[in-house]
């Protein structure tokens, strides 16, 4: 796996690693598939996590551990969308807005999780290069993936909040390709948010008896 951590090329003075490039390209593809509500978003997310896990394992234990959690959530998402396909009229998962209770639970879990993970990173400095923002991005990613697994439109809002910190953090720490990918994430998130928002509103509209669907 050492080859994954070798330099692929130099871009704007930044050294791009193969692991950074390949893993994030798969992550970008997974987000695009999620926008299209394709169940293949989850195997691609799992593969992205597996590549980055292999790249980090053995020398960046904290980063490898985070990818292991991402892979577990990807398996959960696959299971949820397999069950949810029966709910959508077009054979894909039906999307909806979360209830206020669900939003409160996710927000509380994100806040508590960020504090807990950041304190863990501070206690073991080798796990992270920047404990608080790193914890925020990690926990935010898990919350976003959970909301995606449940077909919630709030999934896109969670990704936007992750992007706001992820872009400057990756550039500041030398992960230029991750930074560029997060910028593209932002554009995809806006398109995906619009699509899921419109679908959820259309699904909520009552259909009159005898009227065409």
TrEMBL record:
The keyword Amino-acid biosynthesis does not apply. Keywords: Cell membrane, Membrane, Transmembrane, Transmembrane helix, Transport. The keyword Flavoprotein does not apply. Pfam families: NMN_transporter. It is a multi-pass membrane protein. The chain crosses the membrane at residues 12-34, 46-79, 104-124, 136-162, 174-193. It is found in: Cell membrane. Belongs to the nicotinamide ribonucleoside (NR) uptake permease (TC 4.B.1) family. This is Membrane protein.
